[in-house]
Predict the 3D structure of the following.
Amino acid sequence: MTHTLAARLNRPRPVAFAVSLLLAWLLLALIAFALRRGPIQDDLAARATAAVRAAGGVHAQVHIEGREAVVTGRFPSAAAAEQARASAAVSGTTSARLGDDVVIATEAARALVLSLTGAGLSIDATVPDRQARASLLAAVADATGGSVSGRVLVDPAVAEPPVDAVPALAAALRGVPGNHTATVRGTTVAVSGAVPDAAARDRLSAAVLSAAGAAVPGVTVRDQLTVPRPGAAAPGRSATSEGSTPRTGTTAASSGATSSGATSSGATSSGATSSGGTSPGDVSGGEAATLAAVRAALGPDGVTFPVAGAALSAAARARLDQIAEVLRAGHVTVLVGGYTDVSGPSPLNQALSLDRAQAAADYLIRRGVPADRVRAAGFGSREPVGDNDTSTGRAANRRIEITPVSPR
């Protein structure tokens, strides 16, 4: 090698040096980006998940692919899934989509019925999968100290009921003396049963509203609690009830029903006659005449229902048309009480009796009876008017009764 060649090889090369520096800088930048990518994606996923849950997607999860938010989980409807997807597009993401494993229910959530009888708590509900069933049973077990009764069915087509509300609802029911039932359907909680006085009724309604509000956005409470009249016997406990399949109908919807005491040994309650009859009770004069006219309009057969059904037949609507005409002309406030026969689980039939009462009450209101003069409540299988060992007797027990109540 000559001197000239050696000098050329040892001469500095500015361009190559600059390229080497640029490549080193890019390599360091890539390393830094890779190290930061994990925390950035975790932050985006956490913010997107929080946004989705704040919008009502309580069981949704979000993960980040690149800068795209991918939403997974189970949703009660396609609209709810789309709302979750839109909510996931938080600042820092480029887009949001639903994951391939998203499950959208094809049926609305069925009623979740939580009943307190004495010291016992029972649950009746339908959930979409075994994981939800295990969560619900665990929540009831925690609320009862390990004892679980009732029935929880699995149906993949239905949306999940608000399982998270169960512990607080159980505590609310236990906080007021008496036997109570909370029926959660959609954004409505119907609370029924017997309480000792008006103050206890208001306290229980407020506690149920607070308990359900944390798990059910926009929840409303429909007060169907009964307060005994002064001197009347306290409502009895129901032993069994009707309804062999889960119910998805609407709950009873009147503000604070008041009724005479109900018995559970086969006799009808004080102040009510069988098969939807009425009794003047403590009313007199024009009110007694109104109630007598209502009783005559009902006739000997009254308003009855099919097994596990709450739909009004043509004959029932015809009788209620006559009753509405009578009530419009008077000033009596009435309680429409729903009843069942003794076949099937008690919690389901408590909801079914509420459905029957509300169906009749709503019909009367649509026919012009002022809403503030019509109240509704469900009494399950209490006060049978027929023999539950015969089909004819059970048919008679699937009924409503109309009784006068004191206006609040």
In short: The CA atoms of residues 113 and 347 lie 6 Å apart. Confidence is low (pLDDT under 50) at residues 232-241, 243-283. The longest helix spans residues 14-54.
